[in-house]
Amino acid sequence: MNEEDLLKRSAEEREKIFKRYELGRAEGAEIDPWEDPDFQIYHVTDRYGFMHDKPLPSKLDPHEAKKQQIELERIKKWLKMLKSWDDNEKLKDKTHKHLKSSEKINEWEMVHKEKLHRRIYKGIPNSLRTQVWCKLLSIGKVKGENKGEYNKMLKLARKYSTDARQIDSDVNRQFREHISFRERYSTKQQSLFNVLTAYAMYNSEVGYCQGMSGLAGVLLMYMDEEDAFWALHVLLSDVKYAMHGLYKEGFPKLNRFLEHHDRILTKFMPRLKKHLDKHGVDAILYSLKWYFVCFVERVKLYKDFMYDEDTVIQTLERSMDELKKAKLDLPPPATKEELPSRQFGIFIEPTFEQIVGHRMESFTNKEKETNEIVMLRREAARESIEIDNRESQVSASDSVGNAGTDVDSISLSSSRYTVDSETSICESTSSSIIECTRL
Amino acid sequence: MSDLFKKELLFKILVVGDFGVGKTSIIKRYAEGTFSPKYKMTIGADFALKQLDWDSETRINIQLWDIAGHERFGYLTSVYYRYAVAAAIVFDLTRPDTFFAVAKWLADLRDKVSLPVGRPLPVIILANKGDVAANKVPPQIEEFCKKNHITSWYVTSAKENRNIDEAMNRVVVEVLENQRNNNLYNSDSVMLAEEMHTDKHNNGQLCCSR
Fold it and tell me: What spans are recorded as compositionally biased (Polar residues) (chain A) (predicted)?
């Protein structure tokens, strides 16, 4: 095939994929029977929209009933808090023109910050998630400042998207056990495809990376298409969440976190670390998914987690204290390369390889460079901790021992919660992304 | 149980190929005997285990590594490839482009995985989704294999369980041959196997000599 043919074929392919999503499930839709859910199988959907293979019990068990009762109580408190939050924002809008409202806002946030944090940790009531997430991510503001931009990106994607093939394949595999994503080309599948192809145009530095479909999928469970688009954008670009650096070529933020993870492991569980190293088990093998999809589909908490049970929080707090003592509570600050450097929404002509969808022959210099830096830095981190350990062994062997016990106790208490990589989660799915990254 | 076997080996086998060609389906079919159209995308890598009672003396534990086909994960492959003794490259008969990518995956493998004594990594090619009618195998495949020292390729179907056991057996034969020919018993994979063996028996009754 010559270049012209290849380009023609790619254009046709793109055309075909977009057309299928535009058509949705309307008459004439060509859907391979095994792309669609099997209606023969009896499914039952939980209150988060996830379907289970076995029917859910018709009567709530006491544990679940109590949990829902507590959530109802929580809703009242949240509504009150949301009202005051709203009032404050209105005040800000009103006073925006002639006076510095920042002081007033800070005041509200100062007063409520701790309460907000505590309540978020305990769980945002599911029915208020949409509202709370939109507030936390300032969706209204961001959307208002970028009127028309989303539609522009949709149009650009329609014409030029080079990620459509990968995104199409991933939409077909994302949250298919969820009621909204269950049917091929359903409204939410259309939205997911639109958000991801549009965002790949908007943030050309990142484009599309696997993991983003999970993120956007969860957002779409609680938001409409355009809100989800801007929420995704805030999660990537706002310095508070800065997931941009996780997904962009070379994964600089992932590398920084892995390094930090290694440091903690070396310090607190040196024997485990040595064992893993000996067998070539790099942290990236098991932890990539933690960071890329914020534990979506990794941890299932909803079964055992009691809303009034603070063990998890207490254990986490205790562990954080230990980490703080060891000055390992936070990874080093982000480097500049993790943050967006290219202007958003600027169209960049795709290359021939991108259009045709050929895999690049070799790694880019950027990738090679990052890879090397990472290797070196990790090696250095390992050495420094080892030296550190040797020095502190004499003076503080006791405290190291204690710290180790504490870390163990996390795994003990968390093992009470079912960890299941296959089953989808509700509680942790939704709470992790926005709620945890913020805190 | 394992006392029955004199040799217990551990092979790490990679399964690579472009996104959506069916790597996860093939692995699930082989390791668990099941097929579902609802597999999720693989982020980074996953792995599965399969135990093969190869002959009356040998038990082989196969570690199948499911490597994400998403291009951006490309530079991570060196981490996943470590200690591998063989690989299967999968392409999708319904998407001709995925066959062209086979060459790139092969180059990546050959570039990053070296066996002791410089023998090339045993590789097989799986032309998957063979259940979908009217999909022709690309005619270039024979020549491609010859040129790249690949001894076998199979038309497979994870859905209909076609040729997957056969293909995996072929890989195992090649790995065993490779080890025999070169007396490579000090390769990493066998070291792991030896450790497993010694762990279980405590007295270090090894299956082979260095």
Answer: 392-407
